[in-house]
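Quick start: read one record
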Amino acid sequence: MKNKMPTLLSFSFSSDWADKIYTYANIVAIFAACLAAVCTFLSFRSSQIRDYYADQRRVQYEAMSETARKEAARANESAAVENEKTEKLRESNLILRQQAEHERAERLKLEAKVAPRTMPPEYAVRMAAAANEFCPRIGRVAVTAANGNQEAQAYASVFVRILRDAGCHSELSFPIPGLRPDIQGVHIGVRDVANMPEEARLLLQMLTAGNVSHDIGTVEKGFSPDESFVLVVGAKQVLQKRCRLTNIAVRRSRSAFATF
């Protein structure tokens, strides 16, 4: 016989409560066991169902793979035939392509000859930077171009705009007598090359900064007599080798142009 009554969680219960707790605990245990059995059964059956569908998908994928392999084989055969045709066409078109490339190169050369001159933005920025540095020391830059050459005038206007924006006093003028229409390229005309003004040297540095091809030469007294140096913009050059400016002379007639 036990001398001390057992407790539940440090609580003592009467006989009736102990019977009730015992009964309920057994009921819950039986329910939990049944629930565990049902869950085990459901897990087992669902696993079988998943395996069934997985097998079905595997069979389907294998069938699709086989079909794809057959189609790939047929495609490879067709590709081999097409490659052979393509090779024949490539060989037959090689001469035509070479002729077309030659014609295109000739066309580009012709377009480059007739296209108006422009200054790429990066070179314009460089020339503008040099102009901002030198214009306070130069003051005035006279710019001239052939009267009847709109392309040369447009190109000369680019220089005028850069010089003006940098603070130089510059404008496009057409003195009489002026340039002959056959004068080509950009030139800095001075009175005496041996005693070239410092301003002309600074202008030379500006053109060099802008990657502008140019020459330096002398001008006669009758050509822009009020200027110690002139920026001359002639027609676009069409000769492969650029002729160097030796002299910008003038004729005395009304329609005279400067000469090299």
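The first strand starts at residue 140 and ends at 145.
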